[in-house]
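Suppose you are handed a protein chain with no further information: no name, no annotation, nothing but its sequence. What can you learn? This example shows the usual starting point.
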Amino acid sequence: MSRESQNEESRGRPSFSLRHRLFRALWNVTWIALAAWTPPPLHPWRRLILRAFGAKVCRLSDVRGSARVWYPPNLTLGEGALIGPKVICYNMAPIELERFALVSQGAHLCAGNHDIDDPDFKLFSRPIVLREYSWVAADAFVAPGVAVGAGAVLGARAVAFRDLEPWTLYIGNPAQAKRKRKGHLQNDRSA
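A reasonable first move is to predict its three-dimensional structure. Written in structure tokens, the prediction is:
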């Protein structure tokens, strides 16, 4: 079969199987009904729901009720990791937050996008990882395939299209290194 006929055949078809779409629909209804309204102290309950849908969630990690996780089996949260209020976790590919990684309110972790050069505008996905003690600040955006280094900070409303070096503050769109972070954590973790 030629590439042209394959493209014609695939046009208009859903990117994900019916089973996958039904799973996500059940997930969304469950989260809205059982978790979206919960106050911050009910993080054990939200962890239980996430685990029931396949997320790998460590003790003392938290996903706030107003956050949106697209596909729980692609979410891994290390000890003390936090996904804050109104975060969009578009995890078409795996998204991992290591120990004590933080994502502040309104940030967007986007592990999927479209190939703008493909005539069919096909979806693609790449994993995102936030290394330990990293922080994605309010309203920031992390693009597919980005690794946020240990202790790195992506400032408020900054946009990361490339990997961020450890223990460095990034600001702007696109994110640019501003300076190295100061403090004891960097020295303790680099050994």
